[in-house]
TrEMBL record:
Gene3D superfamilies: Nucleoside Triphosphate Pyrophosphohydrolase. It comes from the Bacteria. This is Nudix hydrolase domain-containing protein. Residues 19-131 form the Nudix hydrolase domain. Pfam families: NUDIX. InterPro entries: NUDIX_hydrolase-like_dom_sf, NUDIX_hydrolase_dom. Coiled coil: none annotated. It comes from Nocardioides kongjuensis.
Amino acid sequence: MSGDDESRDLVAVTLVWRGRVGIFKRGERSGSDRGRWRCVHDALGPDDDAVAAAARILHAATGLVVRDLSVLRAGPVLQFAEDRGRDRRIHTVLARTDQRRLQLGEEHVAHRWVRREQLARFDGQVTWLRPVVDAVLADWQPASVAPVDRHPVTA
């Protein structure tokens, strides 16, 4: 994480491509979560907007820009107790892309596109990965974010 590791609030982005979730492996030399699988995230300042922060984080971690995303929307905010006894608020964001290939930033050494049900197979993931992904995908109502049909069929 490039922000303050001690920050109480995080923004975590669940990136989806063709129904698969993007997970990212931190490098062994990176700050926290070394060598662990996770979604991209960073500290969220008290005056930061979660969706704007997510766009910045996605660009730094994957090379994606807003025009590469078909969906970018806030999800639920989760309370999460860490191993060290700290409580964190995780502001979740859903992002959908049609871009399969990503340009990983310096913090990550690998990424995979996996089906939601396959997440458990990845050893060495952060403890909050699956709860965040589950909450974001459960909250997502595809009809509410579908593009507007500019040529409706009339009977």
